[in-house]
Design a protein that fits this description.
Keywords: Amino-acid transport, Membrane, Transmembrane, Transmembrane helix, Transport. It contains 15 helices and five strands. It has 484 residues and is mainly α. It is globular and about 65 Å long.
Length: 484
């Protein structure tokens, strides 16, 4: 922050603690151009954040999604979303700095800088509602993986003679308790190690799922599936339509990360090269890796299981043996989702804490930090009471809501439909138009608007299908009762 030609160093409550001379050695060594501590993010750590966010539990539902759309529609929809997300992420990368060179620290800051007005609040509403929904979805997904571990071991001991049902509530509570501790990590830039571990885990369970599918194809000697997906007869005509729409929403959700791209980009160390250049390189690497994995896991999973592919390839028991390898895969899912939860929730944590500091700058409960010396660790860990209470309450609420509404595939579909058009397409395109001052009705403007309208229609279709799926599933639904 510039203060009278000098750099003001911000404290937790965004107040200026002290100032440094413009060309200070301390500034160049320890602080960036905005007075904040030096960012240290690299292509590796930034890619880890994105892969942790993108290659999530959604990859395990892709075989089910392709089963609804078939060999023609499934891969085509996946490639389409891969292109759209890569294109929009590249546009977003240019929005990190304003035309004056100032940084935008969050998605909302980028919208405020380029568009302004009521669209800033609309963007914030969509972004943080979506991140809250993802936290709920990941809590559900983790409990399903934990239950799958219990069930596979039970099947192994009983020779599959027992139903081996178990409740998901204890596992959701366990996940919530762990997340309460992880949520006390102050910011996204300090989560790089957790993102790297989570990214490795995502490759682990995706590779195991892929291996299971390949072995099953080799054993049967046949490639299952059809050109148009699950046939009418196995499901009704209406269910076929709704499930196809829901599958589109699931695929859309599995690619989305533009809504946390600015927050991730804010961890990249200062130029040269520019943050946008690094981010575009990361986008390309991440898009190639995720699309390759998605095509492999989705298509080979469908080829192995066919039209009756489960909603979650590792927990729907499309595969049983070897049970210990299935357990390893589901443990990897759990570890990955522990990290992914944090990557998605840190922007919410940061937003609320900055808002509280802005409105109550004199409150010691909000601004005071207590030094806690942990033996063997340097420097001291700083405990902020507001952060401790607020983040604990957030995790508690997401856990309770997940226990109330444990509908994994439906949650994925609704989230994909809700966020895809506004956050992944509309805002990036509108900011690009405003930033580059693209003339109205020019060829580029028209093409951009056509892409936006096309994606809006896809979001509506996916949303309708997901809501229909929820309506059907709610008929057999009981709150606080997730049993597999």
């Amino acid at each position: 922050m510039q203060v009278g030609g000098q750099i003001g160093i911000k404290s937790h409550n965004n107040q200026v603690d002290h100032v440094l001379p413009p060309q200070s050695t301390i500034e160049s060594k320890y602080f960036d151009d905005d007075g904040r501590p030096k960012r240290t993010g690299t292509v590796l750590t930034t890619s880890a954040h994105i892969i942790t966010a993108v290659i999530g539990s959604g990859v395990l539902s892709l075989a089910w999604a392709i089963a609804q759309l078939g060999w023609i529609g499934g891969p085509c929809v996946m490639l389409m979303f891969a292109f759209v997300n890569y294109y929009s992420a590249s546009l977003m990368a240019d929005c990190y700095r304003s035309s004056h060179g100032n940084r935008n620290y969050t998605y909302m800051d980028a919208v405020r800088s380029n568009l302004g007005g009521v669209r800033v609040k609309i963007c914030g509403l969509f972004q943080y509602l979506n991140l809250f929904g993802i936290a709920i979805g990941y809590t559900i997904a983790t409990s399903i993986s934990m239950m799958a571990i219990h069930r596979s071991n039970c099947f192994h001991k009983s020779g599959r003679k027992k139903p081996c049902h178990t409740s998901g509530n204890p596992y959701m509570i366990m996940f919530g308790v762990i997340e309460i501790f992880l949520s006390q990590i102050p910011g996204l830039d300090q989560l790089w190690w957790l993102s790297i571990v989570a990214a490795i885990m995502s490759f682990t369970y995706s590779t195991i799922g892929l291996g299971f599918a390949i072995v099953k194809i080799a054993e049967s000697g046949t490639v299952k599936g059809s050109l148009t997906g699950i046939s009418v007869g196995s499901v009704t005509q209406t269910e076929k339509i709704w499930r196809s729409f829901q599958a589109i929403g699931n695929i859309a959700f599995s690619y989305c990360y533009s809504f946390i791209l600015i927050e991730i980009q804010d961890t990249i160390k200062s130029p040269p090269p520019s943050e946008a250049t690094v981010m575009k390189r990361v986008n390309l690497i991440s898009s190639i890796i995720t699309t390759s994995f998605y095509m492999l896991c989705g298509c080979i999973g469908y080829a192995a299981v066919g039209d009756l592919a489960p909603g979650n390839l590792l927990t729907g028991f499309a595969f049983y043996d070897p049970f210990w390898l299935l357990d390893i895969a589901n443990i990897a899912v759990v570890i990955h989702l522990l990290g992914a939860y944090q990557v998605y929730c840190q922007p919410i944590f940061s937003f609320i804490e900055k808002l509280a500091s802005k409105h109550y700058p004199q409150s010691r409960f909000i601004t005071r930090e207590i030094n806690l010396q942990i033996p063997g660790f340097q420097p001291c860990y700083k405990i902020n009471l507001f952060r401790l209470v607020w983040r604990t309450v957030f995790v508690f609420v997401t856990t309770i809501v997940a226990m109330l509404v444990p509908l994994f595939n439906d949650v994925l579909g609704i989230l994909g439909a809700l966020i895809f058009w506004p956050l992944v397409v509309y805002f990036p395109i509108e900011m690009h138009i405003a930033q580059r001052k693209i003339p109205k009705w020019s060829t580029k403007w028209v093409c951009s608007q056509l892409l936006s309208v096309f994606c809006l229609m896809i979001s509506i279709v996916a949303g309708v299908g997901s809501v229909a799926g929820v309506t059907l599933d709610l008929k057999a639904f009981q709150p606080f009762k997730i049993i597999y």
